[in-house]
Fold this protein.
Amino acid sequence: MNHPPRRDTTQASLVRRLHLTGLARHLTLPQALRRAHRMVDDSRLLPAVEAALHHCVGAPRTFTARALLTAMAVHGLRLREMHLTGVLDTIAELPPSARRELHLDRAVTYRMLWHAYTLLTRALDTGNLAIPHNHSTAKDSGASARCERGDCPYEPISLSAFVGRLLAVSLPPGFPLTGVLAIDSTDYETWARRRAWTPKPDVDPDHPPVKDTPPKNRKRPGNESGWPFTGHDGRLQHTRDPDAREGYRSGTNGAPGGVFCGYDLHLAVNARTRQGPEVPFVFTALHLAPGGSHKGDAGIALIDQHHAAHHTHASEVLADRGYSYCTPTRWALPVRARHLEPVIDLHPQQRGTHPTPPAGTLIIDGTLFTKALPRPLRNLPGFTLGMTKDQKKELRARYDQRAAYAFTPHTRPDTDGYQRFKGPAVAGHLRCPNHPRSLRLPHTHPTSTCRPGTPCACGTTVTLPPDLMPWTHQRTIWGTTAWAADYGRRAAIESGNAEIKTHRLHLDRGFTRVFGTTKNSILIAFALAGLNHTLLRAWHTKRNQPDPWATHTGEPDNTSQTTPTPRTRARRRHTSLTTLTNKPPPS
């Protein structure tokens, strides 16, 4: 009897075929505790937090700075909602040996946890959190400059530095970052109840045009007495959260966009390089800003935090139109000043022909073309929602036809931002009758319609100033197949948003229940630091590779022990029908 070939059910084959990220969803308490201790030590934040919490007068603090940081790190590593009551439950679950190590001789009350957490946030708000001096000749308070002594570790710790260090130590030592940042912002509603509504969303003027279109047949409740009022930043405050402001969230998954009240959570994710292999999409920086704040300023703060916390300097940044639409002086120019190559999407209002190009050229969609560009290729439609894959491919093919008429970089940008570009006939992309050398190119190259003897820019070299088209310029021609592949790497941040919003953290309203930018930033930073551990573990498990953190800490990697083996079908019939049929009758 012919049986079908059996499938390869070995462990390696199973890991390669199945999506095993669910196996690495949660860490055990001993694993989380071991990794939390390593994070606290490697971050070098403990001396600064001890200086803020412990004092020379009064009774000694029973709930120490190490206990605070370790408990919050353990709670974040276990992927739970970042409530202080939840952190208190995590402390209660610690084994006696861990409690002795943290000097927790008695039960920890909510008041003890809240008081330590409040002192930490207060020190960050006032700018007094700093690694103290190690000598008695300098005052620990009030010093704003680095100590003159070279062996003194004094260093002020800002909120950005605090958050950046937590995310940096959530990656194993020696973890290779690619230098490519995919950034985006997502909405995070405040826990406070909204008490007022306005007819128009209160967002920064640099924000892309938005419309507040509430659902039909739905009336907004009236404002409570005295609400809204002007907050400390001059914007309207609608809740008791002093930093929460109105923002606009874009529509996703078919849901319409709308106004929310809370914060814009700006995130940076490690993305792969061009032509490079796939990498884990881990979070490297975060910046929490009031809703509706300037996205360009927040994006620059996010990049600066990454550079300060990680040894690898970023070389590329992948950003959507929420950032590229900002005024060049607050996004494009600061990005290039940091020697970053932007890969951006364009808003419909950014597209079209630039009004002041050099003689004989056109600037369309952020790219310099010669005027030989055929008119049917000058005004191409954009990509809209609902387009099929074939429709996008066909439209990109039309954009690809522009490449033969485009100027290409001749040199790298100078220190002052000026850069030379060579014409398509010089670059060998276009045949032009005014440049006989280009006519030697194969006839597969397009031929321009320039008249012989009439001046044209096909074979010239031009120098462009940095302020000519900083709003829209990028290295690849917008809309082409090459641009789609370059910009498509931004899926890394979309994957990160899905992890924190849907799959693992569920970071939406109520994930934290505190007020203020500083308090929310600390809790979210611990949550994302814990998520990085899980993302690394899941990524390596799926590829049948050891967990890098398990290798670094020396803990047993038990993911293979929990890998499900295929179920074997029970053989109910011990003999085949053929054997029963051919069996001789009993004598």
Notes: Residues 279 and 347 are 29 Å apart (CA to CA). The chain is about 30% helix and 10% strand.
